[in-house]
Amino acid sequence: MRLRLAAVLLSAMLAGPATAASLPELIADPGQWAIQTGDFQNTRHSRLDQIDRSNVGRLKVAWTFSTGVLRGHEGGPLVIGDVMYVHTPFPNVVYALDLNREGEILWRYEPKQDPSTIEVMCCDTVYRGLAYDDGLIFLHQADTTVVALDAKTGAVRWSVTNGDPEKGEVNTATVLPARGRLIVGHAGGEFGVRCHLTAYDQKTGARLWRAYTTGPDTDMLIDPATTTSLGKPVGTESSLASWEGDQWQIGGACPWGWFSYDPDLDLVYYGTGNPATWNPVQRPGDNRWSNSIIARDLATGVARWVYQMTPHDEWDYDGVNEMILTEQEIGGTPRKLLTHFDRNGFGYTLDRATGELLIAEKFDPATNWASAIDLDPASETYGRPVLDPTYSTDQDGMGEDMTTEGICPGALGAKNQQPAAFSPQTKLFYVPTNHVCMDYEPFRVTYTAGQPYVGATLRLYPAPAGQGFEEPGIMGSLTAVDGATGKVVWALPERFSVWSGVLATAGGVVFYGTLEGYLKAVDAATGKELWRFRTASGIVGNVTTYSHAGKQYVAVLSGIGGWAGIGLAAGLTDPSDGSGAVGAYEGLAKYTANGGVLTVFELP
Amino acid sequence: MRLRLAAVLLSAMLAGPATAASLPELIADPGQWAIQTGDFQNTRHSRLDQIDRSNVGRLKVAWTFSTGVLRGHEGGPLVIGDVMYVHTPFPNVVYALDLNREGEILWRYEPKQDPSTIEVMCCDTVYRGLAYDDGLIFLHQADTTVVALDAKTGAVRWSVTNGDPEKGEVNTATVLPARGRLIVGHAGGEFGVRCHLTAYDQKTGARLWRAYTTGPDTDMLIDPATTTSLGKPVGTESSLASWEGDQWQIGGACPWGWFSYDPDLDLVYYGTGNPATWNPVQRPGDNRWSNSIIARDLATGVARWVYQMTPHDEWDYDGVNEMILTEQEIGGTPRKLLTHFDRNGFGYTLDRATGELLIAEKFDPATNWASAIDLDPASETYGRPVLDPTYSTDQDGMGEDMTTEGICPGALGAKNQQPAAFSPQTKLFYVPTNHVCMDYEPFRVTYTAGQPYVGATLRLYPAPAGQGFEEPGIMGSLTAVDGATGKVVWALPERFSVWSGVLATAGGVVFYGTLEGYLKAVDAATGKELWRFRTASGIVGNVTTYSHAGKQYVAVLSGIGGWAGIGLAAGLTDPSDGSGAVGAYEGLAKYTANGGVLTVFELP
Ligand SMILES: O=C(O)c1cc(C(=O)O)c2c(n1)C(=O)C(=O)c1cc(C(=O)O)[nH]c1-2
Ligand SMILES: O=C(O)c1cc(C(=O)O)c2c(n1)C(=O)C(=O)c1cc(C(=O)O)[nH]c1-2
């Protein structure tokens, strides 16, 4: 009750359509949704509680808004004061909608981008959304142009070019505004680009630092003495030593996912993508720091610690999924944690100050490429997966043109970029999963700038019955994981992968979307379904909530797409297209067609 | 109550997803929406009354469905048994949705059409919807391919080519299935095509007859002795005599609007479009039978009677708007009537058996090109408009390259194709109007097959304040017109033209959509607004209602477009583009973006 009042008061203070309030202030107000991830910690938990277990069943549509663009609509709207900011996939149109007038358009910004950019986007034309701070809206376009727009007018304040789409450098990620810096990633792992994380000055767009994820220490902003991995200094040229020759130059490992920030430690956390190519035989070594969690000092960019989940990736297990920062007791001791549900099927919890690995548990029971993660600090293989050679696609260098069957999870991971939520009330993580396995056949490729540098053929299919769910054909779930132990508490099966981001609220409700297009609300404690609504198209967006004029709303973007929805989104029909996703998800065509619609819900 | 029960019973009888019930049977069941126009009479009145004045305020969204296509979504879904059939604008995708499973896709049909067809569509890529009879779904594609699909499976049963898009012959209209015949029109007036109405055999697609709207009597299926106009035989070569030379060959006058049918008289009613070009100086004469109502014998195609609303059109006043067939008393005598709200600003009521003109009243008070229609049967100018020479764009052959200002209505008419509804309870017509005027400058054009043959530059703008509404800037209204007198009873002003078709129900509610995207419900008696909902995009679709499992639903397509919405739909920004519509409706960009979404409403 007190919280709700605070929200109303703060909202009332925010005069006019957009305000110049700072992001930390806005995040502190549960009435706003000021950052894609809900908060710097990426918990996607809202303290709003008007909509709760008892009344969510009566939720109804308040209004809808078509974005004018089709294909995968990832991310979600921001709410700052009386204004909602909505983005679209390529060409990345931005709308400022007036919440006082049911979403009338205050301004729109339509960047002109070369359509050839679409051809170098690996996994649909998605964009995971805008960011805001101090009166500026930050747009990171598909073609890697970073633009700061005046939140009141849509006027361009500054704009910089972060990469080169001709080489395959593109963007799908949101940016992170933190203490005057803008943290910016990019994509292109499937095109063999050399990836980096960059900090720009929020006010001017001036570049402050850039940290590559492969290559010499100086490029990577790694200090061999102070940058640690699992508690020990990484040593000199930790990346160079893990690649053959200069393969690190075309080694991918893009930070195309999410960013977290700990204001006290002043550390930015993010994950890096798969090493290029997907043919592991072509790139001996651990391929550092691909598939890794990296903690960097916001001010200098220097890496504090790194941890590689999947050394020498043989399965396309990008490590970019979100890092959720929580404070919990582990073994009776309160700790500052970082939890990360990786594509490789393991959920990792680390001490986020030190990078110490505390928990690593399978959150998809089908996971078979590794039986466990070595958690013994005394072991030589501390932190490394205990591999099952049956599912190696490298096969000690003999794997080329051989098909390895039945690998779980499939390349799109037990979880992809669609973010989980954490509720401090239930102390559960709510993880949107893929329950998908694969056959994988690596083949040799040569690098040509701007051309696909993939090197593997895949077949994707549901995990076998009995490995998580009794029914056959289950391709995903909403899985609740105990925050303190990493153990699965319950899991709700879904016909298709859950490709939408989850929202947990103080009302005891967890929301998520399905590829068929349902927005669902379940009981945060038990997972019992409380409500569902069939939106216009498949949901790959992330559910958000906000309050306006004292009333709580829930909002979500519909629009089938992303890797799982690429068949419908791009009109592909060959089952092997989209690296096997077209075949695996062809059943989706029974449920949905392309779209691009925001739906806003309210209580009657 | 009896009606609702009958509906439930009939619905229960209709086994499986689609049935082979005949169209008249389905129309008799108010639970179905079996024909675009609601019934053969085009009343768009439903006898369903679950949703009524008292509860419509609680209407909420039941489910939504994105069609996967953007641009103007005209027409509406059909409901046959447990299946809803949804169409899209070009490329005219057809979906069969399972109403028992919240709109799961039973089948989809995606025609392959040459995108160059889009270039010869004058007024957006719209399509006014599917038709059904005896187990077949009839699709008339933009490229004039007429396809009969198995309603259960989507399999093509037959397909014929009705015209040639290379010449500019395209289609936007629905077809009319009547007594085993399929009545088929087409478009292309702005490309100087020679237009016709064609009847095909429903079962086989064999062509039964074709009636041109200009040219020799034999081509027109006019019998100079028995075909009448205002009660008198039209005489030999009534069309040829009204054109100079062979201009009738490129004279347009397309039947691109709606079709009505009187089963007792076995007559089909429809209107013809504007004569080509828009430059009246280039085509002296009355230009028959452009801008006319034509009644044809269904079996033979022979014209029973004709009536030309706007002889020698100087303003682009196509006569294609729907013909609403009612039985009402006029001057104490019950009569079989045909009422038609024309683009030219007059609402006409005729005896539909004889073609006698009974009423002609302005339904937009701004109308100024003519002061009245001569209703004196004894007069030499009986049935002709009483012109105001100030607003002539021909200016006795001197009008070329002269701008005539302040003509009302503008070229898109006081009402365009968006259909009105009639309630037998209130005996009111509910007319969606444009309250728009224009400046018109004709210029000389030469005909080239497949090239625009327009010949006029327009500026469109709201009618002046005080000519209907006190507020300035009003561009449309929902206008209630007394069925027996043709007088306006009330009119609800709208900021923009009402470009959606109206639905009237036995619940005493009238529904219509707005270009901003609102679906509105008003009291059928008083016009008082009872409810509104902001759909995903501007509404140019027609509101429908049906019942399923004993519950009444209201459905409407959103998707800005049509002539009024062409700026947004086609991404045009030059105010003079779209024959002036881009400038006139540029304010729309504040409210909506492109879309293609079906929204289905229900009571809680
Ligand atoms: O390595 C890369 O650069 C890169 C980029 C992206 C992207 O930018 O969307 C994806 C992936 N990889 C990827 O592996 C992947 O599974 C994936 C899924 C999606 C999506 O949005 O659904 N993007 C991406
Ligand atoms: O003369 C023709 O052939 C023709 C065709 C069409 C059409 O097919 O949509 C329109 C018109 N004319 C026309 O004059 C007009 O105002 C118009 C509006 C619309 C629409 O759907 O919004 N179509 C058409």
Automatic annotation (TrEMBL), chains A, B:
Cofactors required: pyrroloquinoline quinone; Ca(2+)
Assigned protein family: Belongs to the bacterial PQQ dehydrogenase family.
Top-level division of the source organism's lineage: Bacteria
Region forming the signal peptide: 1-20
The Pyrrolo-quinoline quinone repeat domain, residue ranges: 33-360, 407-554
Molecular function GO labels: calcium ion binding; oxidoreductase activity, acting on CH-OH group of donors
Binding site for Ca(2+): 190, 274, 316
InterPro entries: PQQ_b-propeller_rpt, PQQ_MeOH/EtOH_DH, PQQ_rpt_dom, Quinoprotein_ADH-like_sf, Quinoprotein_DH_CS
Gene Ontology CC: membrane; outer membrane-bounded periplasmic space
Keywords noted in UniProt: Calcium, Disulfide bond, Metal-binding, Oxidoreductase, PQQ, Signal
SMART domains associated with the record: PQQ (SM00564)
Protein name as it appears in the record: Methanol dehydrogenase large subunit protein
Bridged cysteine pairs (disulfide): 122-123
Annotated organism of origin: Methylobrevis pamukkalensis
Pfam families in UniProt: PQQ
Positions annotated as active site in the UniProt record: 316
Classification via PANTHER family: QUINOPROTEIN ALCOHOL DEHYDROGENASE (CYTOCHROME C) (PTHR32303), QUINOPROTEIN GLUCOSE DEHYDROGENASE (PTHR32303:SF4)
Cofactor note: Binds 1 PQQ group per subunit. Binds 1 Ca(2+) ion per subunit.
Annotated positions binding pyrroloquinoline quinone: 74, 128, 172
Keyword Oxidoreductase: yes
